[in-house]
Amino acid sequence: MQKLPPISLVGVPTDIGAGHRGASMGPEALRVAGIGEALAARGLDVVDRGNLNGPFNPWQPPVDGYRHLPAVVAWNRTVMQAVGTELAHGRVPILLGGDHCLAIGSITAVARHCREQGKRLTVLWLDAHADFNTSTVTPSGNIHGMPVACLCGFGPHELTELGGSAPTLTPDRIRQIGIRSVDAGEKKLVHDVGLDIYDMRYIDEVGMRRVMEEALLNLGADDHLHVSFDIDFLDPAIAPGVGTTIPGGPTYREAQLCMEMIADSGRLGSLDIMELNPALDVRNQTALLTVDLVESLFGKSTLMRD
Ligand SMILES: [Mn+2]
């Protein structure tokens, strides 16, 4: 069996960038669903680092187009440091979110690590949304709709330059899968920068297998794959526990295939699990499903082969 590196779970209990309260309870719901035990049962070395700390959510309206910007920056700095520390120790960080604005800190740390190690970073963004809003086009000011834009250098300098300089990523290093809700202004921006989007229509037309073959094409030994998994990627029929459900997402089997093909690539180096909202879940079923999918992401095969 392939030897996988040790894993660190890092909880980030905040909904500071979200439009609904409750993702702050995500880390604990994932623990209650047994994420650590499930990975350990696969023979992996798993350590739970507990939760990071940061400012509480004041639940205020946006200021100059951004909601809670100073607190979002504070949380992301802490995330960047924690993720960077795990990578420097040769561990695979699994961020237990928390809302998706925290991917700014997470991926900024991963990008720096890749630069230092001479690795090429590819980000797989599993989401119903492109998360490419800016303060001028966002309808809400919620920063969880802006992390991909911020990582590509579009956004407040406190976030685009979190790692020292902007952009953290060029759009060609990102592949988005499962997209089915893009705001009008956001759509134009996404087209302008040429983001690689495998939307639900494309998944319907060619199937998840070909989508993942294309998204994972040409990954070699020098590639670091980062998966940023927004739980709203999944169809709400199987995953009701998120704040921004959009119908028409991947089914259970499509999601499993997606995870299994990422595992088969052998390149997974870091993971965000974001936007799980236990306040909206039903008997923790979305957390349990997430743990099931993460097991596949780390190589648990449901197939009759090896
Ligand atoms: Mn998202």
TrEMBL record:
Pathway: Nitrogen metabolism; urea cycle; L-ornithine and urea from L-arginine: step 1/1
Note describing how the cofactor binds: Binds 2 manganese ions per subunit.
EC class name: hydrolase
Transferase recorded as keyword: no
Source taxon at top rank: Bacteria
Keywords in alphabetical order: Arginine metabolism, Hydrolase, Manganese, Metal-binding
Catalysed reaction, written as an equation: L-arginine + H2O = urea + L-ornithine
Pfam families: Arginase
InterPro entries noted in UniProt: Arginase, Ureohydrolase, Ureohydrolase_dom_sf, Ureohydrolase_Mn_BS
Record-given protein name: Arginase
Lineage per the UniProt record: Bacteria, Pseudomonadati, Pseudomonadota, Gammaproteobacteria, Lysobacterales
The gene coding this protein: rocF
